[in-house]
Amino acid sequence: MNKIIRFTIREYMAAVKTKGFIIGLVIAPVMMSGGFLAFLLLKDRVDTTDKKIAVIDHTGVVVEALIDAAENRNKNEIFDEESGQKVKPAYFIEVIKPTSSDTMQQHLELSDRVRNGELHAFMVIGSDVIHPGEDKLGDDISYYGKNAAMDDVRRWTGWPIYNHLRKLRLADAGIEESQVPELFQWIDVSGLGLVSVDESTGDIEDAREASPIEALVVPIAFMMLMFIMIMFSVPAMLNSVMEEKTQRIAEVMLGSITPFEFMSAKLLSGIAVSLTSSAVYVFGGLFVLTSLSLQGYIPFFVLPWFFVYMILAVMMFGAMSASLGATCSEPKDAQSLSFPMILPALIPMFIYFPIAKEPLSSFSTWMSLIPPFTPMLMTLRMATPDSIPLWQPIVGLLGVILFTIIFVWAGGRIFRVAILMQGTPPKFANIIKWAIRG
Q1: Residue 345, φ and ψ in degrees, nearest 5
Q2: Strands (E), 211-267
Q3: pTM for this one?
Q4: CB-based contacts of 284, cutoff 8 Å, min separation 6
Q5: Residues 6 or more apart whose Cβ sits within 8 Å of residue 305
Q6: Residues of each domain in the chain carrying CATH 3.40.190
Q7: Is 124 exposed, middle or buried (0-12, 13-18, 19+ CB in 10 A)?
Q8: Taking CA 44 as the corner, what is the angle to CA 40 and CA 45, rounded to the nearest 5 degrees?
Q9: Cα–Cα distance between 302 and 288 in angstroms, integer?
Q10: Is residue 55 within 8 Å of residue 63, measured between CB atoms?
């Protein structure tokens, strides 16, 4: 045991004292959250180039609402009140008379003007949008542009058009607009949590407004952090064992320690590195959120589960990583095994969004109970505002413990056989044979 502890300390110090560890500690969260940070930094940076939109209005009375709305927007919304600088593009509406012959030819000509940059986009307002019929002919509004799905102008046109359509329908029904002013008042549906009871005072507390931070950002942050911890330590074990084997360092070390002690020290050092890194991120995150008075979004009950799952995940993946590293005789062998080794940790990264959105669904439940995926996905589910039944993280934990024992047992047998073998490529059949027969 003393040898394992001494070798673990040596491996741990060798890992955390390197510049790569310090740089990775800083860069990893930046890389993982780069898109979110870029969004925050660039959200106010918009293209202020004026945009001209051509409109073909088959009703003859709807386009005037767009013209009025655009003029009001250009006058009151595109300039910063304090600096006077232009912060939004101006919108200009060009009215196009509908053709009575070939409509497709007219649409083609307008499309060419959009391609040439003369127009930003063009719209076609159907003739029956005021009073749509059952046949659905002529009651559509079409927006044509280079990137219509993501176009802010398309989204902006919705309110002025539909607000004007309501007014026209009231007028046709003989109802004065002044008689029903509330008809044009839009009321948003507020998203709230659940009413609860304060355990310390017994008072009923009103529900808190639901936040995307609580619903998505915090759960995904927990899962991403665990992924970073796995990537911090597990691939490094494979390369470390491979280098020590190819450089004949392992042969010297095995003269004083057994293969089991060698592998155990590798796993313990990987766990220690992960705990060090995660402690920096977790306590740093708690400090930042507390400083911003956002501690209400922190699911403190998840933290013990997070560290337990992370330790088991590092042991589970690390055992196979170290054993696969022992089968490699040259760097290209390690490269070929790197992707299959981290694949179980990558799969949750492709399915996290539907699970974060519906954490209680059957898909979310069963995927989070598959042991290689459990550490990341169960932590993600528990960090969401939905209450996960207690039996699920317990069953998930038991499954991970069982798989960790199997992985460590199999990895130890592979490690013992392969660590001193030279010149034998890591074939899948051999790896399975060594894991079963030893």
Answers
A1: -85, -20
A2: none
A3: 0.71
A4: none
A5: 378, 379, 382, 393, 397
A6: 51-184
A7: buried
A8: 105
A9: 18
A10: yes
The tokens of 305 are what?
């589960």
Angle of helix 391-418 versus helix 259-291 axis, rounded to 10: 140
pLDDT in tens, the chain (438 residues): 777 787 788 777 877 777 777 777 777 666 656 555 555 555 556 678 899 999 999 988 999 999 999 999 999 988 888 888 888 899 999 999 998 788 899 999 999 999 999 999 999 998 888 888 766 666 788 999 988 888 889 999 988 998 888 888 888 888 877 777 776 676 777 776 667 777 778 778 776 666 777 778 888 888 888 888 888 788 877 777 777 777 777 666 766 777 777 777 778 888 888 888 888 888 887 887 788 777 777 888 889 999 999 999 988 888 888 788 777 777 777 777 778 888 888 899 899 888 988 898 999 999 999 999 999 999 999 988 888 899 999 999 999 999 888 888 887 777 777 776 766 667 777 777 777 776
Yes or no: domain 51-184 corresponds to CATH 3.40.50:
no
